[in-house]
Design a protein that fits this description.
With 113 residues, this protein is an alpha+beta fold. The chain folds into 2 domains: 53 residues, Winged helix-like DNA-binding domain superfamily/Winged helix DNA-binding domain (Arc Repressor Mutant, subunit A); 55 residues, no CATH class. It is 63% helix and 12% strand. The protein is built from 6 helices and 3 strands. It has a 3-stranded antiparallel β-sheet. A hairpin with a 2-residue loop joins β2 and β3. It is elongated. The protein starts with a helix and ends with a helix. 7% of the residues are buried.
């Protein structure tokens, strides 16, 4: 998915070439087919080749994936997920990261009032 998001679209051969330690070409084609069956990709035909494209933006897909991670690993608790991320960094956040988090929290507080 990273390769397709980075390029906007890609054929199986292009995905295979871009992988650092690629599995077989047929494994790449199979994975692309599975991703299409699950609704993450769609394709268009370019002669004999299938060109794969994402079905949603990277931002939308990342939000959806993050929601699933929070639900699965943190019992739906956003605060536990954030705490785990901060702990994973050893509490070493840059001033810019802290400022951005503070702005997000302030905006969330306004929405709950």
């Amino acid at each position: 998915m990273d390769i397709i998001y980075a390029r906007g679209e890609a054929a199986a051969a292009e995905v295979h070439e871009a992988l650092p330690d690629p599995p077989s070409y047929s494994a790449v084609r199979t994975l692309l087919r599975i991703l299409e069956e699950k609704g993450h990709l769609k394709h268009r035909e370019d002669g004999p080749r299938y060109i794969f494209l994402p079905t949603e933006t990277r931002a939308k897909a990342s939000k959806s994936a993050l929601k699933r991670v929070v639900q699965t690993f943190f019992d739906g608790s956003l605060s536990n997920a954030v705490a785990a991320l901060v702990d994973a960094e050893g509490g070493k956040l840059s001033a810019e990261e802290l400022q951005r988090i503070e702005v997000i929290i302030a905006a969330a507080k306004k929405k709950t009032r």
